Amino acid sequence: MNRWWNGIKSSWHHSFSLLWLVLIALQWVSFTEPFWLETTTSAVLLTLAAVAVIEILLPVKWGYRLVLEALAMLYVVYRLILYNKIYVPDPWAPALRDRLPDTAAHMVPYIWFALAAGALLLLSSWWVTSKARILMFLTANIVAFAALDSFTSSILWQEVAWTVFSGMGWLVTQHLRSFQLHYPRGWTYLLQYPFKVAVNIAIIFSLVIVTGVNMPDVRPTLTDPYTAWQDWNGVGKSSGSGTSGSSEAGEGGAAAGSSSSGYSLDDNNLGGGFNFDYSPVMTVTSDLRTYMRGESRSVYSGKGWSDDDRLKRGPLEKASVGAELDRATASKGETRTLQQTVKLLGNNDYPVLFGAYSISKVDSIDGEEAGNGLFWRSVDSEMLWGSTEDLAYPQTYVLTSEIPVVSVQELSKQTYDQLYTNQDITRYLQLPDNFPKRVSDLAENITQSAQTPYEKVALLQQYLQVNFPYTNQPDLSRKKSRDMVESFLFEIMEGYCDYYSTALVTMARSLDIPARWVKGYAPGEQAELPDNLAQQGIVNNNYTITNADAHSWAEVYFGDYGWIPVEATPGFTVPLLTQSEETVTEEPEQPEEEKAEPQQAAAGKDSSEGNLHLGVWSFSAAAAILLLWAGYQLWQHRMSLRFLIQRLRNGQPLSPVQKVVVETERWVRYLRRKGMLKEEHETLREAVGRWSRETPEAAGSLSSLLRLFEQAKYSPDVIEDKDWRSVYTEALRLQRSLRSRR
């Protein structure tokens, strides 16, 4: 046992280096987790743990350790494929040697990931053994994380922070190891005060953590190379053609402030921020203000909407100008016919024709009764443009739509069974397997008072509009979760249309209410007519739509009542018709570019209180250590602080004689609090004599204190600092003697 313990102690630096390496490796696992299978991630994590434990707790020859680690990897992968039912052994199979090939086949490719992780850990611990190599290794990891953070949708600031923290610990370990090798006697002396060494290291780390967390959030003065390259190539600039990047469908770009609003073609990674672009896109002539619907999405990935292949989302059919389109009509839903004339204001090329929901006929294209590039997808109500004859996108087109008229009173009474019995709604209930439970729980909590699907959707809509402020520059530094909706609801808690619409669709789906995500344009602005024309009763039916009107919203399916648009973004209201109205209920308002700072919603705050992140715990622990250290320092230097106050009062430093007098006054005040009063007619010598007779156990200390005072006050002897410190020490003895008397 002693031999094993001695081996552990002799390899302490190797053990700590492995721990820092494992912590850095965990950051890479955190980055790859969304892309790997759950079994792969588990295999890598367990392998790293097994290799580290064997390396630390079994200080035997390296050859023996390698064999044990290889066996541990095989066992880990084997148990995982059994646990996840990837491999189910045949109980009637022949001998073990005949089952091995089948078992090995099922362990691929997980075993290769595990072996690679273990090998990288061991190679790194073997090669990175000096300060220069540690710095080189850390720099490579940080640069890699920074590149991935810039060139992908991942936000890896937390991974970088933990890598820096691990590097600091690793450098401290290396420094102590170097001190041990070069100064063995000093190392032996240092081992006598392990607590003091640990406390000083903890204080330094805490200072770095607290300082880093509280650094002000300053926007970069210089543009990073990747963004500059994008801007130079025109990739980061948005227009109606949807070149704003892959971050969102309507309003923004991939990173906060790095792009402009516009209609995007890629919705795989939503989020980020954008700048408003008020460049005009189209004019619409219509008797009714409506949302100009473009495309819809159904497959949510956790980061965005991944079903962006327009040819595979559903069956397409050739559409002809002037012909009625095949549409899935709602048997209980009423509609109003509306004709719209759309005129494009630029040379932009879109994948769809925009129109009010739902298009029933394309009347004309560019004034001609022809259109070879039209394709209709009835399941999504999308009019796609995809000409194979190199035709330019239509600059003018006229189409007819059927606008749903919502029967609010009737619809709010319809139960789930009445709406969805014998309805195929599976496609519109899709959620990823790792969809956050706390999002589903929040949806349940919000709608617990509702009885019908319509009432539940209304409560979700109200919750999102009331509790989360609109901004085109959300604070992404608060983002922790990898799921877009979870980070919006519990961390960022502010955003623009893509956040609200995606949250509404996924929360509705978590309640088994079918919904889909839609993007297009808000109605735009209506130009004011001159007073003379307005007085004649002439109405201006022309609306100008800009890139800033690019928008996304939700559509909820209510069975025989059809698809109903639902707006969750504050400041926007979808122009809906109801059976009791002949005109639009409300008109949408464009939110201001700058909003007030967000206030956290009470419900969101309550839901997130029990989900503190590791970073919060780290900051709290660091702050607690610094507070304890500050308190200890104040206690240690309490006498110096007391004399500092006296110095400020006197305007000059206190001499040793004055310090003796101050300390004497202090212990006299202490005796007064204990009921031992000095009468006005008494000298200190007379009072000490009386106190000594009353408390014989304190007579020795009182006599010494009196002697030190009289020596300083009346003796020609030189008083030094050690003399007033003697007064302080003797006063402590006096206090102990008086306490023991009680």
Distance between the termini: 51 Å
Q: How is the biggest beta sheet arranged?
A: 7 strands, mixed
Look at the helices and sheets and give the structural class.
Answer: alpha+beta
SS elements, strand count = 14
Query: Low-confidence runs (pLDDT<50, min 5 residues)?
Result: 234-257, 581-614
Give the overall average pLDDT.
79
Kindly report the oligomeric state of this protein: single chain
> What percent strand?
5-15%
Helix proportion of residues, in percent?
Answer: 40-55%
Shape: elongated
| Helical run tally | 25
Rg is 37 Å
Molecular structure report:
With 742 residues, this protein is an alpha+beta fold. It contains 25 helices and 14 strands. The protein has helices at 2-10, 12-32, 38-57, 62-83, 96-107, 110-127, 131-151, 157-182, 184-190, 194-213, 225-233, 408-411, 416-420, 437-446, 453-467, 484-492, 497-510, 531-535, 602-608, 614-636, 638-650, 656-673, 684-694, 699-714, 721-741, and strands at 280-285, 292-297, 317-318, 334-344, 359-365, 374-377, 382-385, 396-406, 515-521, 525-526, 542-546, 550-557, 563-566, 577-578. Strands 1, 4, 5, 8, 10, 11 and 14 form a seven-stranded mixed sheet that branches. It has a four-stranded antiparallel sheet with strand order 2-9-12-13, covered by helices on one side. β12 and β13 (563-566) form a beta hairpin. α2 (12-32) packs antiparallel against α3 (38-57), α8 (157-182) crosses α9 and α22 runs parallel beside α25. The longest helix has 26 residues, at 157-182. The chain is elongated. The two termini are 51 Å apart. 32% of the residues are buried. The model is unreliable at 234-257 and 581-614 (pLDDT under 50).
